[in-house]
Design brief:
This protein is α+β, with helices and mostly antiparallel strands and 345 residues long. It contains 8 helices and 19 strands. The strands form 5 sheets. The protein has a 4-stranded antiparallel beta sheet with strand order 1-2-3-4, with no helix packed on it. A 4-stranded antiparallel beta sheet has the order 5-6-7-8, with no helix packed on it. It has a 4-stranded antiparallel beta sheet with strand order 9-10-11-12, with no helix packed on it. The longest helix is centred in the C-terminal third of the chain and has 17 residues, at 253-269. The radius of gyration is 24 Å and the shape is elongated.
Length: 345
């Protein structure tokens, strides 16, 4: 059992399981309805809408559910005067490309928000099932989301150790697919971070972003040369050995090689939509370098799954079921496939 939510009347509640079932119960723990295979690969979260609709002999509730199948679904739960219940699928929302881990309605039921392993937060018009926003500010998968009950504010939590606070502006339905302005980000990480820059593609970096990157990589001696040559993100990605030596007058062969190596690392770390999903670690959503197979049958980046296990979390990141063993097996086939893909791109 991985999800539960009370109805707005507080007389029944829904549960969701890793088997993919949604089950409706009353307070006496009697099962009122079972919707089997609601999500093929397992349910991760469910949430009732706050409103109750009544029409003649039928009382209707709305429920959102999400799962490992990367879908967010909206259901109608009809209660008939006879006491029978029936669930009807109204909408299947496919705005996210990886398992959807969390979902919730706004206090007025007008908006529906969800967080996903693909690091995005999506905000929908709940009534019309229309995507309003896709928010990309988190750097790891989004595990939690909630609306303030009294103000137009959303909080989203992520494995990147941050909580982002968003304010929903008036007229949001007219800005299809655009990000809400971020109000603040609260982080538990110690020390300074480059969160603002890391949310950008390298090609979008400013000259100041490049300077900060040089400092972080221990190349502070090159900051002035890069600034004098107006090197921004796009220019950085296009640097060659000839450019560094002849135009920027960096005579040290070792230093040139180090810069170019760091640039190649940047390129390989930049996750883009063109990377096949099976090449991305389910935990970090970044291109895997040392893929390993865990006991749940899924492949992960070795460092990421080892860190997951070392936090005493012995459950699968994908299924939430206990890992029978912590033994990790190198996935040589996947590593070779990733290598071929990198060579061709």
């Amino acid at each position: 059992m991985v999800a539960c939510s009370f109805s707005p009347c507080s007389q029944m509640f829904m549960t969701g399981s890793t088997y993919g079932d949604l089950r409706l119960w009353n307070l006496d723990m009697n099962q009122l309805h079972a919707e089997k295979n609601a999500h093929d690969l397992g349910v991760t979260c469910c949430a009732f809408a706050p409103s109750i609709l009544s029409s003649g002999q039928i009382v209707q509730f709305h429920l959102a559910s999400c799962g490992q199948d990367s879908h967010l679904k909206i259901w109608a739960i009809n209660k008939f005067s006879s006491g029978a219940y029936k669930m009807q699928l109204l909408h299947t929302l496919t705005g996210q490309s990886a398992p959807v881990l969390s979902c919730t309605y706004s206090s007025d039921g007008q908006l529906l928000v969800s967080g996903s392993v693909d690091k995005t937060v999506t905000v929908y018009d709940a009534k019309n099932a229309v995507l309003l926003y896709t928010l990309n500010q988190h750097e790891r998968y989004v595990t939690a989301c909630c609306f303030s009950p009294t103000s137009p504010v959303i909080a989203t939590g992520s494995m990147d150790k941050t909580v982002n606070i968003w304010r929903v502006e008036d007229g949001c339905s007219g800005r299809d697919g655009k990000s809400l302005p971020e109000e603040s980000a609260l982080t538990s990480c110690e020390g300074t971070t480059s969160a603002g820059r890391s949310k950008l593609l390298v090609s979008d970096w400013s000259e100041e972003d490049v300077s900060m990157w040089l400092l972080e990589e221990g190349l502070e001696g090159l900051v002035e040369k890069f600034r004098a040559n107006n090197i921004d993100g796009t220019e950085l990605l296009n640097l060659t050995k000839e450019t560094l030596a002849s135009e920027m007058h960096i005579e040290s062969v070792g230093l040139c090689s180090k810069v170019l190596r760091k640039v190649e690392e940047l390129k390989s770390e930049s996750v883009c939509s063109g990377i096949p999903d099976e090449f991305l670690c389910p935990i970090t959503r970044e291109l895997m370098r040392e893929p390993v197979i865990a006991a749940d049958g899924y492949s992960y980046e070795r460092e990421a799954i080892e860190s997951w296990i070392n936090t005493k979390n012995r459950s699968s990141p994908m299924t939430n079921l206990p890992l029978l063993t912590t033994l990790l097996t190198p996935n040589h086939t996947l590593k070779m496939a990733i290598g071929r893909w990198k060579t061709s791109h």
